């Protein structure tokens, strides 16, 4: 999809895990800008990138406010027709869960928490996403570096992936057990079982390739393929 490849092209730091994770929310990020933009504003949508940050700027203030936007659970889009169009291709849900999913993804990767800013006259809403590169360990001896590079690189990559994804994998396993026992289930029922919020549970469900769904957003049920 164009918007997915567009967002991926903004990134300079990518690993297999990071790239796959970002590709799954890339469509959501662009769609969120379009759905909530005030197209009658002074400036249009602006996406800027520097060494470690990607900045999304929307014309218009946040209709739910920064705190509610971060918390999620309430949806008040400016452009409802655009939102319906994106829903038809399974991008976004009318649950106010887009921004919380972004915060959760950044937390899973161990990156700094995204920053939401508001400016007035002209009104603009700004989302700042920071992607910090991993620091490479230095050794004083070249011989030691050569001998230990393979071992340390494997260990650090394993530890990093374990830290960022171990909790998510645990939740995925619980979801599989629940669905195999109970069959098609709503997000709220699954969330109650794994003790997470509905928006976070929905984000995990959307990352599971062996889980599918059926029905409209307000009555959607998930099941194992």
What does this structure look like?
The protein is an alpha+beta fold and about 220 residues long. It folds into two domains: about 1-130, 2-Layer Sandwich (Heat Shock Protein 90), CATH 3.30.565; about 140-225, Winged helix-like DNA-binding domain superfamily/Winged helix DNA-binding domain (Arc Repressor Mutant, subunit A, Orthogonal Bundle). The protein has eight helices and seven strands, in the order ααββαααββαβααββ. The chain has helices at about 1-10, 15-35, 65-70, 80-90, 100-110, 140-180, 185-195, 200-205; strands spanning about 45-50, 55-60, 115-120, 125-130, 185, 210-215, 220-225. The protein has a four-stranded antiparallel sheet, with helices on one face. Strands 5-7-6 form a three-stranded antiparallel sheet. The chain starts with a helix and ends with a strand.
Which key features would you list for this structure?
225 residues, four-stranded antiparallel β-sheet, alpha+beta, single chain, three-stranded antiparallel β-sheet, Arc Repressor Mutant, subunit A, Heat Shock Protein 90
Short description:
51% of the residues lie in helices and 15% in strands.
The stretches of 5 or more residues where confidence is low (pLDDT under 50) are 1-7, 10-17
CATH class of the largest domain: Alpha Beta
The biggest sheet, with number of strands, parallel, antiparallel or mixed sense and barrel status, is: 4 strands, antiparallel
Distance between the termini: 24 Å
- Rg for CA atoms: 20 Å
Across the major sheet, the strand order is 1-2-4-3
Strand runs, count? 7
CATH topology of the largest domain: Heat Shock Protein 90
């Amino acid at each position: 999809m164009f918007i997915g490849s567009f967002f991926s092209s903004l990134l300079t730091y990518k690993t297999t895990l990071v790239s796959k994770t970002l590709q799954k929310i890339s469509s959501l990020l662009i769609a969120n800008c379009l759905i909530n933009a005030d197209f009658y504003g002074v400036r249009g949508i602006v996406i800027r990138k520097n060494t470690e940050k990607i900045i999304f700027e929307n014309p218009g203030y946040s209709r739910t406010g920064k705190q509610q936007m971060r918390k999620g659970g309430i949806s008040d889009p400016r452009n409802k027709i655009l939102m319906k169009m994106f829903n038809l291709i399974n991008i976004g849900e009318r649950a106010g869960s887009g921004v919380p999913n972004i915060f959760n993804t950044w937390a899973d990767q161990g990156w700094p928490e995204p920053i939401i800013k508001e400016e007035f006259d002209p009104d603009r809403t700004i989302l700042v996403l920071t992607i910090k590169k991993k620091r490479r360990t230095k050794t004083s001896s070249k011989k030691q570096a050569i001998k230990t590079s393979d071992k340390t690189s494997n260990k650090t990559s394993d530890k990093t992936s374990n830290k960022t994804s171990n909790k998510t994998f645990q939740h995925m396993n619980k979801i599989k057990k629940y669905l195999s026992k109970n069959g098609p289930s709503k997000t709220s029922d699954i969330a109650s079982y794994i003790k997470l919020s509905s928006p976070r549970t929905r984000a995990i469900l959307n990352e599971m390739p062996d889980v599918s769904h059926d029905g409209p957003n307000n009555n959607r049920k998930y099941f194992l393929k």
